[in-house]
Amino acid sequence: MFLRKVLDQRDSVYEKISQYLQLKNTIQSLQESGSQRLKTDVDLGCNFYVQAEVEDASRIFVAVGYGFFVEMTHDEALRFIEKKTSQLTAFTEQLTKDASKIKANIRMVLEGLRELQGLTDLPESRRREVF
Fold it and tell me: Which of 50, 52, 68, 102 has the greatest count of CB atoms below 10 A from its CB?
């Protein structure tokens, strides 16, 4: 159960990284086009989208965590995204290490139980594939 929670948490962090990288790509395309107008689709919830037009996209609101948004210029947002994604990447690496330790502990306990019960691994010749 604990292993599943760690892996789920790691997956949610990967999803946040993906969202920040998508924002980074959007900002870069805005900068390359040189236009301050932006047409986009906005999710109202439950996969209902409406078209929206932003007349001045020179400043954007970026989610910084805990439900807070900060208004930033494109350059400020790109710097923030770089720092945030590197921080989140380091966190995913730590979660991966934690998951590996949990898996190793599970394997060690199973081997101990197998020894206590006097069981050995089945030889390869007696094993067969199910599918």
Answer: 102
This prediction's pTM: 0.75
Both structure tokens of 81? 């995204």
Say how many residues make up the chain: 131
In the structure encoding, which two tokens stand for residue 20, read together?
């920040």
Residue 105: count other Cβ atoms within 10 Å of its Cβ. Answer: 12
Tracing tokens 């400020």 back to the chain, one arrives at 76
- Two tokens at 118? 């006097």
Looking at residue 130, what is its pLDDT? 46
Q: What is the DSSP string of 25-83?
A: HHHHHHHHH----EEEEEEEETTEEEEEEES--SEEEEEEETTEEEEEEHHHHHHHHHH
Residue 84 and residue 90 in contact, taking contact as beta carbons nearer than 8 Å: no
Q: How far apart are CA 109 and CA 74, in angstroms?
A: 52
When the pLDDT of each residue in the chain is averaged and rounded to a whole number, the result is: 87
- Of 25, 20, 29, 24, the C-alpha closest to 89 is 20
